[in-house]
Design a protein that fits this description.
Blueprint: H1 2-6, H2 10-23, E1 27-32, E2 35-40, H3 43-54, H4 57-61, H5 65-71, E3 77-79, E4 84-87, E5 103-104, E6 109-115, E7 118-123, E8 128-133, E9 139-141, E10 146-150
Length: about 150
């Protein structure tokens, strides 16, 4: 077995390390027959990865005040409770759940978020009038992303 270890392709290992940097993955593992190669980041390598997102943080901070500003004047902002795909209608070709100007009741379904092939009905968090719909039909959404504003 020691002879097999000496036959590892060091160029492949270097390529995997470069791939880790390019993709921001924490580890890559390959297995071929009896040979298994695992390349993982060390804690010291993770520090520069943390620093790299710190540079875009001011850019990320710029959009953050906008939702914060939206939340202050619009306490009826309904945010996404999960990552998924937002749908404004119950099925393709059907009418939308709500439109701007519609009156909604607390708990009324205002859209659906598909996550892991499950359709999750998203309710209005308060009664009022739909002032703004912030997503488009079939748009991917993130956890906490503003969806609709109800006043």
């Amino acid at each position: 077995m020691r002879n097999d270890n000496k036959k590892f392709d060091t160029a492949l290992i270097r390529d995997l390390a470069v791939l880790l940097d390019e993709t921001n993955l924490s580890e890559i593992e390959l297995e071929q027959g009896d040979t298994r190669i695992r390349v993982a980041r060390q804690m010291s390598i993770s520090a520069p990865v943390s620093v790299a997102p710190a540079a875009p943080a001011p850019a990320a901070a710029a959009p953050s005040p906008a939702p914060a500003a939206d939340n202050k004047p619009h306490p009826g902002t309904v945010t996404s409770p999960m990552v998924g795909t937002a749908y404004l209608a119950p099925e393709p070709g059907a009418g939308v759940f709500v439109q701007v100007g519609d009156k909604v009741s607390e708990g009324q379904t205002i859209l659906i978020i598909e996550a892991m092939k499950t359709m999750n009905h998203i309710p209005s968090t308060k009664s009022g009038i739909v002032k703004e719909i912030l997503v488009e039909d079939a748009q991917p959404v993130e956890f906490g992303e503003p969806l609709i504003i109800v006043e």
